[in-house]
Design brief:
Layout lengths: L17 E11 L4 E10 L2 E7 L13 E5 L1 E6 L12 H10 L2 E6 L10 H14 L4 E4 L15 H7 L14 H13 L4 E4 L3 H4 L4 E2 L2 H6 L3 E2 L2 H17 L8 E4 L4 H12 L4 E5 L1 H5 L25 H4 L20 H13 L4 E2 L8 H4 L16 H10 L5 H8 L1 H8 L23 E11 L18 E11 L2 E5 L7
Parallel strand pairs: 1-4, 5-6, 6-7, 8-11, 9-10, 11-12, 12-13
Antiparallel strand pairs: 1-2, 2-3, 4-14, 14-15, 15-16
Helix pairs in contact: 1-2, 4-7, 7-8, 8-11
């Protein structure tokens, strides 16, 4: 199959009647198997998966066309309702499909906040109206209006089908509220998905506290802000389990070595806590704010310490790019290495994008005044493939972090056992086709025109990324096809 040879014919949202792919590289993260193979999709169903061996597999390797299960993103912001200038459910689904994602979980920081079933229904109506087959799941707010004062209508939200509860954009405000939320959510079979930040330490902060922030004159955000919050959350979880053994905690976008070590220790002690890391915390670092564009693994010296970007002469881009203002902030190269180590050893179950599109009005301001977030759902695969190309991450583990890993997290939340988001995400014959096909031998340039998201706030604009997505099929329906398909 060539990079532009899909040529399916149906429009987005229509069932894929027939699609055959010969001699591609298949990756099944559920079985842990990868190798040469062929697939056939008929009437939206993955009719056959044929693994090739011996002479039949000759000439096929993982550097060409790759087939994997569709990706699941545990953390996105599609902004609707309330902030449709930045993103809508329709544009978010289009961006997700372009990135290879067939299912997403939306955060509750909309306006109004997703704190009662009526808001969830508005989102579902928007998803259906979009015509996209990308599955749209959502979290309910922990607190009413995300105000941190009293619990939301958690029981009603669980009955309506939310995946869990999160005040993301901010942590659960008080320990008392978090304990009550963990107990109540546990009774409902749902997790608390927590943004770990000690806001007493981060007030007025603009960038990760350290050498780069000091040189740039930016107010520092100490690593202790994440570690303190994680320590609090884990201690409260341990206590809450005495009253409700089904309580579950998921820590999202963990970004520092100290924070990840706390999660690792909690897991080793048997506590039901999981976490995810983001593509930007794996690959970017604070020196990007100064104008560096080398990957985080390229900035580590032989001793594992971060090299000086000023001394290395790598500051090639304009400093203070506000697309790099994120929460939690980009940390150091050793912290990025810790994120990678956590992904490899399983401390972090998943890569979640924290896709956070913004308007130019919210980003084209002074760095410290810019809204937090990167539009990253379309570039996640390319960033992970850069890690794979550098020999830092096995391909099967990269795919697992986007598929079976996040699915296993959802499966661990008892109330979601029957949810579509909890299915294993492997290459299963006889199941509705849920696939992404991408070409590792090809690349694509990130540009405002190439991004389907309304949010163009990416520090990767102008950069070539490996792995052009050719085709995304969600639940047997066409979600995305490369616009050049069929030209050969």
């Amino acid at each position: 199959m060539s990079a532009s040879g899909t040529g399916l014919g149906p429009r987005v949202g229509e069932t894929v009647e027939r699609f055959e792919l010969e001699k591609a590289w298949l990756v099944d993260p559920v079985s842990g198997r990868e190798g040469a193979g062929e697939i056939v999709v008929v009437d939206g169903v993955l009719e056959s998966v044929n693994w090739l061996e011996g002479d039949e597999a000759a000439g096929v390797d993982d550097r060409g066309v790759v087939v994997a299960p569709g990706f699941l993103d545990l953390h996105v912001h599609f902004r609707e309702p309330g902030f449709e200038d930045a993103e809508t459910v329709a544009s978010g689904c289009a961006a997700a499909a372009h990135g290879g994602f067939t299912a997403v979980a939306l955060m509750a920081n909309t306006s109004p906040a997703l704190d009662e079933p009526g808001v969830l229904e508005r989102i579902r109506l928007a998803a259906r109206a979009s015509g996209s087959p990308v599955e749209v799941h959502a979290y309910g707010a922990v607190s009413a209006a995300r105000g941190g004062e009293q619990l939301s209508a958690m029981g009603e939200l669980a009955d309506a089908g939310v995946l869990g509860f999160s005040d993301d954009g901010a942590p659960v405000k008080t320990g008392r509220l978090l304990r009550s939320a963990l107990i109540y959510a546990g009774m409902l079979g749902r997790p608390i998905v927590e943004h770990a930040e000690d806001t007493d330490l981060t007030a007025g902060a603009e960038a990760h506290e350290g050498y780069v922030a000091s040189v740039l004159g930016l107010a520092g955000w100490p690593a202790a802000a994440e570690a303190n919050a994680i320590s609090r959350d884990i201690a409260i979880l341990a206590d809450a389990l005495g009253d409700e053994p089904r309580a579950r905690l998921h820590l999202t976008h963990v970004s520092t070595a100290a924070g990840l070590e706390l999660v690792r220790r909690a897991q080793a002690s048997g506590l039901p806590v999981t976490c995810d890391v983001t593509p930007h915390h794996l690959a970017f670092m604070d020196e990007w704010i100064a104008g560096s564009r080398r990957w985080a693994w390229e900035a580590l010296g032989p001793d594992g310490a971060a090299r000086d970007p000023w001394a290395d002469g790598v500051l090639t881009a304009t400093p203070y790019n506000t697309s790099l203002r994120v929460n939690p902030p980009l940390a150091t190269a050793p912290d990025a290495a810790a994120c990678l180590a956590a992904l490899i050893d399983g401390t972090a179950s998943a890569v979640a994008t924290d896709h956070a599109p913004h308007t130019t009005v919210d980003k084209e301001v002074e760095f410290g005044r810019a809204s937090n977030g990167i539009s990253g759902i379309e570039t996640a695969l390319g960033v992970l493939l850069a890690l794979v190309d550098a020999g830092k991450l096995p391909l099967v583990r990269a795919i697992a972090a986007l598929t079976s890993g996040p699915a296993s997290v959802v499966t661990g939340w008892a109330g979601n056992a029957g949810s579509a988001a909890a299915r294993p995400r492997g290459l299963v014959e006889g199941a509705p086709a849920d696939l992404v096909v991408f070409d590792r031998s090809d690349s694509w340039q990130v540009s405002e025109g190439s991004l389907r998201s309304k949010g163009k706030n990416s520090p990767l604009l102008g950069r070539l990324l490996p792995g052009r997505v050719l085709l995304t099929i969600a639940a047997g329906r066409l979600a995305y096809e490369d616009p050049q398909a069929g030209e050969d």
